[in-house]
Design a protein that fits this description.
Shape: globular
Structural class: mainly alpha
Mean pLDDT: 75
Low-confidence stretches: none
Number of strands: 0
Oligomer: single chain
Helix content: 40-55%
Radius of gyration: 14 Å
Number of helices: 3
Order of helices and strands: HHH
Length: 66
């Protein structure tokens, strides 16, 4: 899935189920400033959905399923 397709899919999508585990990722100010400017305070999907799409792609390349 391209990043543009992912952004377009967010328009009419419900929030996915989550677990109680949090993962912390350090980002530089240069990386976070444009994200905050483009999505505002609800930036979580901006991080979680591309990671999920990337993991799906890696699994498909390796012939694995979750």
């Amino acid at each position: 899935m391209s990043f543009r397709s992912l952004l377009d899919s967010w328009t009419n999508q419900e929030a996915p189920a989550t677990i109680d585990t949090d993962y912390s990722v350090g980002l530089s100010v240069d990386d976070t400033a444009p994200i905050h400017a483009s999505v505002g305070l609800d930036a979580e999907p901006t991080f979680t959905e591309p990671i999920s799409a990337s993991l799906d792609e890696l699994e498909a390349e390796n012939g694995q399923e979750t």
